[in-house]
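Quick bug: WH1 domain-containing protein output formatted oddly.
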Amino acid sequence: MFPLHREREQPIFSTRAHVFQIDPATKRNWIPASKHAVTVSFFYDANRHAYRIISVGGTKAIINSTISHNMTFTKTSQKFGQWADSRANTVYGLGFATEQQLHQFAERFKEVREAARLAREKSQDKIELNTAALSIAAPQFSQDLCDELQSPPVMCVNGPEDKLFRSQSADITLSSEKERIKKMLSEGSICEMNLESELFTLQDSNAKLVAALHEANANVEQWKKQLAAYQDETERLRDQVADLEVHGSQGPSDMLKDELTQSLEELENLLKAKDEELEMRNVDLERRVQNAEQNLASALEDRERAENEVQRVVQILDVKIFDLNDLRQSLVKLISK
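Here's what came back:
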C-alpha cells in the first residue's frame, strides 16, 4: 500500500537525519527508529490536498506523519528538533548533522503547515458553498423536513433513548478531552526530559570548570615556588659579586667574578621568561574562566526557561483536569436523571 501513495505524491523537500520516537511506555525517553541517518522528505498529495513527512528505513516506513495546521516543530537543541503527531499518538525526533540542516527543516515545516492551514480553510469554504447550493436547489426537501420536525415526536424526551444519546455525546466529549490531556502530558514529559538534559550539561560544565581551576591553582603554586627559588639564587649571586667587588683582587677572583656575573644574567633572563610565561598562563586562565562563566550563565538561563515552560504546562494541565472532573460530574448527573 505504501508504494501506491508514493506514486501519486510528489516530494517537495528532502534531507537526512537520525530518526527517533518517544517511548510510549514512559513518555520520557527517545527510542532510535533508525541505526543511521536516513532520508526524511516532505510529500504533497494532490488528490487529498495533504502534506506528509515520510521516511523509509529498509522496507518499513518509520515516519508517516500527516501535517495539520496546529502542529508545531520545536528545536530542543542546536541539532535536534521534534513534533507531536496526535493521529499517530507519538512524538517524532530528528537529529541533524549541522545546525543549518535543522534550520532548513524547521523553515520548511512552517511553510508546509501554513499551506495545510490554507488548504483546510479552502476546503471549509467549499463545503459551505455546497451546503448553500443544496439548500437553494432543494426547497421542497427543506419544507418536508420542517413539516417532519413539526410533527409529534415518536420518542419520549425524557426516555431512555434521549439519555443514551446525551450520554454518547458526553462520552465523545470526554474522550476528546482525555486525548488532549494525554497530548499535553506528553509535551510536559518532553519539557521535563529537556530540562534534565540541560541540567546534565550544566553539571558537566561545572565539573570541567572546577577541574580547570584546580589545575591552574596547582600550576600557579608550582611557578611561585620556582620563582622564589630563582630569586633566592639571584640574591645569593648578587651578594657574592658584591663581596668580590669589595674584597676581590686580580687573578682568579676576576674569573670567578665573571662567571658569577654570567650566571646572574642567565638567572635574571630565566626569571624574566618565567614571569612572562606566568603572565600568559594567567591571561589564558582568565579567558577560560570567563568562557566557563558565560556557559554557566547561558545554561542557567536555559534551565530557567525550561522550568517556566514546565510550570506553564502544569498550570494548563491543572485547568484541564478541573474541567475534566467538572465534565464527569455533569455526566453523572445527566445519566442519573
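Actually, after a second look the formatting is fine. The chain is about 70% helix and 15% strand. Closing.
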